[in-house]
Design goal:
With 176 residues, the chain is of the alpha+beta class. It folds into two domains: 13-64, no CATH class; 70-164, no CATH class. Helix content is 33%, strand content 19%. The protein is built from six helices and six strands, in the order E-E-E-E-H-H-H-H-H-E-E-H. The chain has helices at 47-52, 60-69, 75-88, 107-110, 113-121, 150-164, and strands at 13-14, 17-25, 31-37, 42-46, 129-133, 145-149. The protein has a four-stranded antiparallel beta sheet. A hairpin with a 5-residue loop joins strand 2 and strand 3 (31-37). The protein is elongated. Bound molecules: zinc ion. Zinc ion is lined by residues 16, 37, 39, 41, 57-58, 60.
């Protein structure tokens, strides 16, 4: 008989999610719940994530918000998203060369895709260009970024790599 105590959350609602049933625990004994989203998707979630308000849908809410912001699915959105991943997500393969080295994204861009998109379109963005920082010691901000071809971007990276003389082989993950 299980002596494990947990808050019975069956039937409770969190945003769009209705908790259906207890599904056991993860390795840290956090209760896992099967939830039904208003859109019809079923997902399993940690109870703590539900109670904290971090998770309020199966993911459809996030997708809708992004669609409203406009441009999700476009190349420029992927560039913006990739930039955020490199700088903010420690699990991203390129994070250690960006966020891990203190490369940050300016306030006007970080939570505001339309602002980034508007800057891009009024500063020479084209579908065959990639975003590059003029000064690699500085972050992503309007004053320090421009659109260059991938080969120009590679050339600059190689130049910089030569200067730094890294011992380890660097596999850069490009902006797209
Ligand atoms: Zn959903």
């Amino acid at each position: 008989m299980s002596k494990q105590k947990f808050l019975d959350m069956a039937g409770k609602r969190f945003g769009r999610l209705t908790v259906l049933s207890h599904q056991g625990s993860d390795k840290n004994w956090n209760a896992i719940w099967l939830c039904l989203c208003d859109c019809g998707e079923e997902i399993v979630m940690l109870g703590s994530n539900l109670r904290s308000g971090n998770t309020r849908s199966c993911g459809c809410l996030h997708r809708e918000v992004m669609t409203k912001h406009g441009g999700k699915g476009t190349r420029i959105f992927r560039i913006w998203h990739g930039m955020k991943q490199r700088c903010e997500n420690p699990r991203n393969a390129a994070y250690r060369y960006y966020g891990g080295k203190g490369v940050v994204i300016s306030k006007e861009w970080i939570g505001d895709f339309p602002a980034f998109r508007d800057w891009a379109f009024s500063n020479g963005y084209a579908d065959d260009l990639t975003i590059d920082r003029l000064d690699s010691n500085k972050g992503y901000c309007p004053e320090n970024c421009e659109w260059v071809t991938q080969s120009e971007n590679n050339r600059r990276m190689n130049e910089q790599r030569g200067r730094i003389k890294r011992k380890e082989k660097v596999n850069y993950v490009y902006a797209l």
